[in-house]
Amino acid sequence: MSELRAAIVQDDDTGRVLMLGWMDDEALALTKSTGLVHFFSRSRQRLWMKGETSGNTLRVVEVLPDCDDDAVLVRARPDGPTCHDGSTSCFTPWLWRTILRREAADESGSYVAASLRAGAPFAARKVGEEAAEVMVAALSESDERVVSEAADLWFHLLLLLRSRGLDPADVEDELRRRQR
């Protein structure tokens, strides 16, 4: 087996870093020849194509080696979420990853799972309630209280996005579009 090189995958449309994988010479050659990203799995000791089981492939736009050819940047277009947990990126904020984990566990005592089962109407009402609480805190309470209420709003806004099948990355993409 040839030496492994780090392969950083970046969304060609948004510039977002999607994942880090490892490529040997064969994975790199397959990536270039097929137009689909391939890696070498260090745990399974075999080649694999991103999306071979999930269908969430990465279509290659460009492969750029670094200055000493021990790492590559792969600019790609994802066909669905990149991370195995359903996130757009493997570099997902902690709170979003927690929401996804709790949704998947679907435990009876989980507020996240119960809220997501209740659907978008429940989440939308909670966002409204929490937004009002942030407003009141901002106008008449301590900074600590504003932070506490903002945390509740942020959390419930993420629940609303998830209940609609959206990802916080969709919001980031919209904000980027507005900058142009």
Shape: elongated
Radius of gyration: 20 Å
Number of helices: 6
Which strands sit side by side, in order, in the main sheet? 2-1-6-5
Query: What's the CATH topology name of the largest domain?
Result: Helix Hairpins
Ends apart, CA distance between termini: 45 Å
What's the story with the biggest beta sheet? Answer: 4 strands, mixed
Output the helix-strand order.
EEHEEEEHHHHH
Fraction of residues in H or I helices:
40-55%
- The CATH class of the largest domain turns out to be Mainly Alpha
> What's the total count of β strands?
6
Structural class: alpha+beta
- Which ranges are low-confidence, i.e. pLDDT below 50, for 5 or more consecutive residues? none
What name goes with the CATH superfamily of the largest domain? MazG-like
